[in-house]
Amino acid sequence: MSPRVREILSWYGADNIGVLTNLARVFNQGRLKGSGKLVILPVDQGFEHGPARSFAKNPDAYDPSYHFELAIESGCSAYAAPLGALDACARDYAGEIPLLLKVNHSDSLYASKAPLSAIIANVEDALRLGCVGVGFTIYPGSSERKQMYEELAMLAREARKAGLLVVVWSYPRGEQLTKEGETAIDVVAYAAHIAAQLGAHIIKVKPPSAHVESELHKKVYLENGIKVSSLADRTRHVVQSTFNGKRIVIFSGGEAKSKPEILKEVSELARGGAFGSIMGRNAFQRPKKEAIELLKEVMDTYVGK
């Protein structure tokens, strides 16, 4: 066990041995083993956006086994997917990579200004599939947030009791937020803090912009000189907002970008103290060889290679 991984585990002293063991498994997997950094492959986009929008660019990606192999061959820390995809292939890859079961989802067939994901799996499914943890999406800002927060609190309690990690996708969205506000620095930092308070071990947010959405927040940011001009500054503030950096914050890759754009963004995230990336479409929509090379370069960026 590296000193850095041991330090990270010490932040979760209220958790049982099972949780700590599973967290250690993730940090001791793949190319970033022992570094205290993570790169996770998430493939829930087929459910969220539709199969053609997600996989038509690289038809191999229609097959769930492709994603297991991509995560393993690139040296990812873990692979996250919905129940169906894990049910289809988890037996074939048992023990080869830590798995995260995404337990709730929305779809793009019905658009709502108050999003609320459906729960489609549970802790029992995660244990049956040999997963190290469960993933759950919340939408801070949605008028349905009360139900989501209560659902997550119940899931987190059950997962922790069973020794599983809790990974929270915290994506601000709702009637009172502008589109620009969904990735505003004050909103993203707030969303990360909410996830930490709800019991997340690992928090996934989008890279924040320099926009400050709330007038109340804007005053505080100006008065206290909170730096937001660079992505590194903003990343540092988001990490600080999760118990002064004592919760693991990783950042999504988002929509498809060029390789130079991705590596530039990751470099800034790393400079700001991000714990890593959770990169889906920017990986699996590329040909496999190209995707593996990209993921390895992303990993190397986090450890300064």
SSE layout:
Elements: H1 3-10, H2 17-27, E1 38-42, H3 45-49, H4 51-55, H5 64-74, E2 78-81, H6 83-89, E3 99-102, E4 104-105, E5 118-119, H7 123-128, E6 133-138, H8 145-161, E7 165-170, H9 185-197, E8 202-205, H10 215-223, H11 231-240, E9 248-252, H12 259-271, E10 276-278, H13 281-284, H14 288-302
Parallel strand pairs: 1-2, 1-10, 2-3, 3-6, 6-7, 7-8, 8-9, 9-10
Antiparallel strand pairs: 4-5
Structure description:
By secondary structure, this protein is of the alpha/beta class. It has a single domain (3-302), classed as Alpha-Beta Barrel (TIM Barrel). It is 44% helix and 13% strand. It contains 14 helices and ten strands. It has helices at residues 3-10, 17-27, 45-49, 51-55, 64-74, 83-89, 123-128, 145-161, 185-197, 215-223, 231-240, 259-271, 281-284, 288-302; strands at residues 38-42, 78-81, 99-102, 104-105, 118-119, 133-138, 165-170, 202-205, 248-252, 276-278. The strands form two sheets. An eight-stranded parallel barrel has the order 1-2-3-6-7-8-9-10, surrounded by seven helices. Strands 4-5 form a two-stranded antiparallel ribbon. Helix 9 runs parallel beside helix 11 and helix 12 packs parallel to helix 14 (288-302).
